[in-house]
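Q: Hi! Curious about what Large ribosomal subunit protein uL30 looks like structurally. Here's the sequence.
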Amino acid sequence: MAKVKITQTGSPIRRDPSQRATLIGLGLNKMHKTVELDDTPEVRGMIRKVHHMLSVEE
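A: Let's find out. The predicted structure is below.
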C-alpha cells in the first residue's frame, strides 16, 4: 500500500478543538514531528481538514 509522509508545520494553539483532535488522530502532537501513514481515504480526509498546519509528501 502507498504511504504518505506528513509533517506538522503549524501550531494548534487558538484553533478549533476538533482540529487539535484531528492532529492527535494523525499521530501528530508537536511541531515538526513527522509520521508515515498508509494512503487511505480516511487519512486523506483528515489531512484535508488540517492541511493548513501540515506539509505532505507523497
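A: A fun detail: The chain has a mean pLDDT of 96.
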